[in-house]
Amino acid sequence: xxxxxxxxxxxxxxxxxxxxxxxxxxxxxxxxxxxxxxxxxxxxxxxxxxxxxxxxxxxxxxxxxxxxxxxxxxxxxxxxxxxxxxxxxxxxxxxxxxxxxxxxxxxxxxxxxxxxxxxxxxxxxxxxxxxxxxxxxxxxxxxxxxxxxxxxxxxxxxxxxxxxxxxxxxxxxxxxxxxxxxxxxxxxxxxxxxxxxxxxxxxxxxxxxxxxxxxxxxxxxxxxxxxxxxxxxxxxxxxxxxxxxxxxxxxxxxxxxxxxxxxxxxxxxxxxxxxxxxxxxxxxxxxxxxxxxxxxxxxxxxxxxxxxxxxxxxxxxxxxxxxxxxxxxxxxxxxxxxxxxxxxxxxxxxxxxxxxxxxxxxxxxxxxxxxxxxxxxxxxxxxxxxxxxxxxxxxxxxxxxxxxxxxxxxxxxxxxxxxxxxxxxxxxx
Amino acid sequence: xxxxxxxxxxxxxxxxxxxxxxxxxxxxxxxxxxxxxxxxxxxxxxxxxxxxxxxxxxxxxxxxxxxxxxxxxxxxxxxxxxxxxxxxxxxxxxxxxxxxxxxxxxxxxxxxxxxxxxxxxxxxxxxxx
Lengths: 429, 129
Known about the structure:
The complex is a heterodimer.
Chain A: E1 2-6, E2 18-22, E3 27-31, H1 35-42, E4 51-54, E5 57-60, H2 63-76, E6 80-84, H3 90-103, E7 106-109, H4 116-125, H5 132-138, E8 141-145, H6 149-152, H7 156-159, H8 172-175, E9 177-182, H9 187-190, E10 194-197, H10 203-214, E11 224-225, E12 228-229, H11 230-241, E13 245-250, H12 252-255, H13 261-274, E14 279-284, H14 291-302, E15 308-309, E16 316-317, H15 324-329, E17 335-339, H16 343-346, H17 349-357, E18 360-363, H18 369-373, E19 376-378, E20 389-392, E21 398-401, H19 412-427
Parallel strand pairs in A: 6-7, 6-17, 8-9, 8-13, 9-10, 13-14, 17-18, 18-19
Antiparallel strand pairs in A: 1-2, 2-3, 4-5, 4-19, 7-15, 11-12, 15-16, 20-21
Helix pairs in contact in A: 2-19, 3-14, 3-19, 4-13, 10-11, 10-13
Chain B: E1 2-8, H1 11-15, H2 23-29, E2 31-34, H3 36-41, E3 49-54, E4 57-65, E5 73-77, H4 80-83, E6 101-107, H5 115-121
Parallel strand pairs in B: 1-5, 2-4
Antiparallel strand pairs in B: 1-6, 2-5, 3-4, 3-6
């Protein structure tokens, strides 16, 4: 059976034009998808049943036992951490936040090691963003800053920017200027009209220089700024000022580099300066397919987008203190529930080591690095393949993902709902 | 030699991200991309093993030449090999310095550990897929 308009649940682009063929509860072909989508839909490497660590080995156990043991672990803990959430649907995220409140736990999502600093900057100075449809139809200048979409968001350029013809941009490839700013050459910089190669840690200085130029202070700019010549900075500023509609997309090259959220604040303020001359927007290149959704869901329930600490009985948020890496680094949490992410692979060593020391339960369809650190793993259905729910695209547009067939695995929502009920029975409402 | 470790996504890392215990994922995640002149200096060929050390410890990876990197810059895709080396300090932001880890690199004949072996070093118990 061929299913059209399938939503890809890999990256923040949430491409919704895939054609997927399903036979006997298995995906057998994918059309329109990128390499990442093909691997995701065609992959068949699921954990078969819940597993529990016993001494130096592993034993299978039933879903009922795994759910009961997870509830017991969370109830026994003084400072549980509920981490992940970006690889599941909004309905499951919502149960997670309510579970955290009931437990007095810390709940954090993967933005903590992704675009957390972007959110901190947006909280300071706002977010002049727009939907990807606006960019596709209007933007004649695109800036990718510290981002490599060809590797991380392979269809971003063909669906929305460089190669996407739009209503007011009839021949995108000829009419759009593409600027790439990065510390290294990438596949994306190779297709840029202008590649600005910045010295490591020099983004803040380049952003400040561009702000000065846009403000008309060209005489203040030295011959070189962070490895970039004055002439190139003038050229880039002129391309931006003369745009009819410009769109900046930034990645982890800004959020993880020295300066962190101050880099993003400066980039947003450059966008503000450019809006004195023309229309310009700025947006983060969100990585996980529903990391934006985790920020939305956390915010509409607690008021905060990530790193929410319920230990005081109310929601408290303080990046640097209530963020997962800091909590794990300090050895502070005494149990961890990992949902739809892999901190074993993606957190610094010291954090992963703490996960191995405490009871760690992972809810995830696949065996990953965290599996080896965990005490218990519960396999679930994959949202967008055999589970469905709401996701938020990188520009904040909610899109309903679809179930392609009825599989045998429960969804994250089912499992978390049962854990919540058991915790509630002990804790009361 | 001394270098600065940068990390980021690659399409191959993304392709195998749900098969982290596979040889294909290990091949990508344990690849240390380097400037070719630096490789000549260290008498490394493509595929040579190198011990990469930071203030967090040392892990063996595989050297690969890369066009886009200046001397002293090395790149590893995000994953357990890069994160073996990353310091957890976040400077009050919640975000470690994933893009700027000072490292030293030297040739070695030691084997590249599997993802499972790295997690066992952390105190975990390996699960066979």
